[in-house]
Amino acid sequence: MTAPTRVQRLVLAAYPPSFRERYGDELAALCEDVGPSPRATFDLALGVLRTWLSPVYPADPAERRRRRLASTAATVWVCWCAVFVGTGATMRMQVDGPPPGFDPQQGGWLVASDAATVAVAIGWVLVVIAGAWIGIPALRHGPREVRRVVLGPICCAVLCVLGIVPFAWYASGHDLSAGNVMPPLWFALGGLAWLLLAMVTCVWGTLAMPKALRLAEPTGERLRPSVLLAAPVSVAMLVPAALLLAVGVRVGLAWGPVVFVVTSVATVVVAAAAVVAVTSVLRSVPSLPAVPQTSTR
Amino acid sequence: MGSSDDGWSDPGMLVLGSLAGGPKHGYAITEDVRQTAAVTLGPGTLYGALARLESRGFVRALPTEDRRKPYELTAAGATRLQEQAQAMREFSRTALRRLAAGGAA
To answer: What is the 3-state secondary structure of B27-87?
Structure first.
C-alpha cells in the first residue's frame, strides 16, 4: 500500500466538489491499494473528465432535481463569465491593432460591436437579477461560509467600479486620444493595477459563485426563476459568439497571426461557453418544479 | 482500463456482477473483476461506475468507519443484472448456434 503520488492527488482534487465529498476518501484509499502507476493516473484523469461532462446526481428525485438546477445555474454563470471576458478581450484586440483598410467605426464591425455590447448589457441585467434572487436569501439565511466565500470577489468588484473614477476624472480633462498627450505615471501604473484587479475579480468571482451556491444549498423552488432567467442569458451569449465568429471569418488573418490566433482561441471559448450554457439550460427543463412555492432559502 | 477485447466490458455490469457475490469495497471489486472477467478497472472507471449505480439505486454503500467503504447489490440492482445477464445469454446462445450451423467461414 503506497500513498497516491502528487500527480494523483492533483487529479483527485480536480473532481467536482460534490463527487469529491462523497467518494474522495474512498477513491484516495483505492489509489493507495492499487499503487501509483501512469495507467491508474490516466484512468483517474479520464474519470475527472467524464464526471465533469456527465455529472452524477443522487437517487432521491427531489435532491436530484435540485442538484440539476444548481448545476445549470453554476454552469451558466461560469460560461457567462467566459463570454464576458472573451468578448471584451477579443473586440479590444481587434481594435487595438486594426489591419490596413479596416475602420472599426464603419461597416459590419461597428454593428457587431454595438450588438455584442447590447447583448452583454442585457445579459448582465438578467444575471444580476437571477443572482440576487438566489444570493440575497443565501446571504441572509445561509451558512456563514457563503458570506466568507463571496465577500472577497464582491469587494474586488466594488473596488474595480470605484477604481474607474480617477481615470474617468483625468480623461475628462485631457484629450488622451489625440496622441500627443502623455498620461502621467500614476495613470499608467494605476491602469495596470486596475487591469490586474479586474482579472483577479473575474477569476475569483467565476470560481467563488458556484462554491457559494453549493454551500447555500438553495431549494429547487428557489432555483427555478433563476434557471428560467438563464435561458435568455444563454441566448444573449450566442449573440456575441456568433458576431465574433462572423467578424473573425470576414477579416481573418489581416490582423496578423498573433492577434488572429489569440482572438480565434477566445472566440472558440466564447462560442463553446454559449453552446454549453444553452445545452445545460435545455437539459434542466425537465427538472424545473411545476408549481413554485414560497421559500426562504 | 475498463475495456477488454471480450465485449463484456461495461464497467457498471462488471461491478454488479462482482457484487452479486457479496458486499465488497473498491479494491476487492477491482481484484474480483480482474480474476473473473480478465478486465482491469482503473480507479476513475470504477468509481464513475459505482457513483452511477448508486445514483440509480442499483448498489448501496454499507456503513463503516473505514475509508474503504463496502458496497452491496440492491434488489433493483439484482433485477438489472439478471436482465442483462439473460440478454447476454440469449445472444451467446444465438451466436453459438449460428457458429455450429456453419455460418462462419
So the answer is: HHHHHHHHHHHCCCCCHHHHHHHHHHHHHCCCEEECCCCCCCCCEEECHHHHHHHHHHHHH
